[in-house]
UniProtKB/TrEMBL annotation:
<keyword id="KW-0456">Lyase</keyword>
<keyword id="KW-0464">Manganese</keyword>
<dbReference type="GO" id="GO:0046872">
    <property type="term" value="F:metal ion binding"/>
</dbReference>
<dbReference type="GO" id="GO:0016829">
    <property type="term" value="F:lyase activity"/>
</dbReference>
<dbReference type="InterPro" id="IPR018998">
    <property type="entry name" value="EndoU_C"/>
</dbReference>
<keyword id="KW-0732">Signal</keyword>
<dbReference type="InterPro" id="IPR039787">
    <property type="entry name" value="ENDOU"/>
</dbReference>
<dbReference type="InterPro" id="IPR020436">
    <property type="entry name" value="SMB_chordata"/>
</dbReference>
<comment type="subunit">
    <text>Monomer.</text>
</comment>
<dbReference type="GO" id="GO:0004521">
    <property type="term" value="F:RNA endonuclease activity"/>
</dbReference>
<feature type="domain" description="EndoU">
    <location>
        <begin position="90"/>
        <end position="354"/>
    </location>
</feature>
<feature type="domain" description="SMB">
    <location>
        <begin position="64"/>
        <end position="103"/>
    </location>
</feature>
<feature type="domain" description="SMB">
    <location>
        <begin position="21"/>
        <end position="63"/>
    </location>
</feature>
<dbReference type="InterPro" id="IPR036024">
    <property type="entry name" value="Somatomedin_B-like_dom_sf"/>
</dbReference>
<keyword id="KW-0378">Hydrolase</keyword>
<dbReference type="InterPro" id="IPR001212">
    <property type="entry name" value="Somatomedin_B_dom"/>
</dbReference>
<keyword id="KW-0255">Endonuclease</keyword>
């Protein structure tokens, strides 16, 4: 046999050998990336989309079967809770098995519990709206707005430059207002229940300081709204205060207290009424600083902690998708979005889909 023939035999045998194992994780679970094979068998393969087809079946713990929502488990090659999306270490069957696994029932149960615990919510007699007049809010009981979480929210409303593209600069005292507000809402039963639900279902670590950090990041850490822009926005500013984009667009503004106060201050003109839906959800059209928004849904009369709790749960459980549940026997659908061009999870928007 000449050298040439011998070499090609070696190549052929190697080829056969590789061929036999190249599509399988047999004996390879957890092995580092190996270019000699066509597919891989470690948790990174999920991210790179090059797992062998038998990876889920063969590699122990590589599947989300019976693990949906479980806390981060370092003994497992991949994870099955919402943060895995951020960290890129979800098991390959996470999407198919787990999204939707935090069942509508479990979600509805916690949302109803939050509603029942929202003792700060205004009673029906504490406010009146007139959907056919020129003003939406015709009466609000001022004493009912005097609660600490309401006052904390109201303090924050004037901290932001509402124009998209203009850099936010929060002063030391404004940052202290953020801290105070966060402390105040985190002390409510609504937020305690929110934390318990998120920790028990594995969406966050079981630590109140981690919960506080998570809320800070979701709502208050500043970010650039456009991927190449200046640091001009935050989840709180967008959802609770509202933003103006150019001369034609109002975006965000999904909080009834901000709507009421801006209407009272003459910055907002109610235009028409679109939808009212129980429980306490309305979607009016209005002008804000002269710019029209054709539909901006929000909860009416609820406390700031309730709105932020509901949106936060939807963000963490149904990131970038529809969060559907029932509340007071009514179907509710909330859409949330993450700011994708910044790592971590900052709320880009959160609103009722209707
Ligand atoms: C609502 O406003 C309209 C127009 O101003 C008025 O005619 C009507 O009486 C008001 N309705 C109530 C219930 O106050
Ligand atoms: C709000 O509370 C303060 C004291 O905390 C009180 O002086 C004030 O009268 C209250 N305002 C209303 C409208 O109840
Ligand atoms: C206004 O709200 C306060 C506190 O919630 C309550 O005690 C009071 O009775 C309400 N006033 C009216 C007129 O309903
Ligand atoms: C969270 O920690 C507390 C103690 O800090 C404990 O009582 C509770 O059972 C833990 N919950 C979960 C879901 O691990
Ligand atoms: C960001 O990029 C977009 C197009 O990609 C451009 O229209 C916009 O002016 C840029 N903004 C800034 C602040 O550079």
């Amino acid at each position: 046999m000449d050298v040439h023939a011998r070499l090609s035999l070696v190549f052929m045998l190697c080829g056969l050998f590789k061929e036999g194992l190249s599509d399988s994780c047999i004996g390879r679970c957890g092995e580092g990336a190996n270019k000699a094979y066509n597919c891989q068998c470690n948790s990174a393969c999920v991210r790179y989309n090059d797992c062998c087809s038998d990876y889920d079946a063969l590699c122990p713990g590589a599947t989300c079967s019976r693990r949906c929502g479980q806390s981060h488990d370092t003994t497992k090659p991949c994870q099955c809770n919402a943060p895995c999306v951020t960290y890129g270490d979800c098991c390959s069957d996470y999407q198919s098995l787990c999204q939707g696994q935090t069942t509508v029932d479990a979600l509805s149960a916690v949302m109803q519990d939050l509603w029942n615990s929202d003792t700060n919510r205004l009673s029906d007699s504490d406010y009146t709206i007139n959907t056919t007049g020129s003003r939406l809010f015709t009466y609000v009981n001022q004493t009912a707005l005097n609660k600490t979480t309401f006052q904390g929210l109201i303090c924050l409303l004037d901290n932001y430059n509402i124009r998209v593209g203009q850099t936010e600069q929060l002063t030391t005292s404004e940052l202290a207002e953020v801290d105070d507000f966060l402390n105040t809402i985190l002390a409510t039963a609504v937020m305690t229940k929110t934390f318990n639900f998120l920790a028990e279902s594995g969406y966050i670590t079981n630590s109140t300081s981690v919960f506080r950090d998570t809320m800070m990041e979701l709502w208050f850490n500043l970010y650039p709204r456009s991927s190449n822009g200046t640091t001009d926005s935050s989840g709180f500013e967008h959802v609770m205060v509202g933003e103006l984009k150019g001369t034609k667009t109002v975006s965000g503004l999904h909080n009834w207290i901000q709507f009421y106060l801006e209407e009272k201050n003459g910055n907002l003109q109610y235009a028409s009424f679109l939808i009212r839906k129980e429980p306490n959800i309305i979607a009016p059209a209005f002008f804000w600083h002269g710019i029209k928004k054709t539909k901006s849904p929000f909860f009416l009369g609820t406390s700031p902690e309730f709105d932020m709790a509901v949106y936060s749960i939807c963000c963490l459980v149904y990131r970038d998708s529809l969060c559907k549940f029932t509340l007071q026997n009514q179907a509710v659908s909330i859409q949330t979005w993450d700011i994708v061009h910044k790592s971590g999870y900052q709320v880009a928007s959160a609103y009722h889909k209707m």
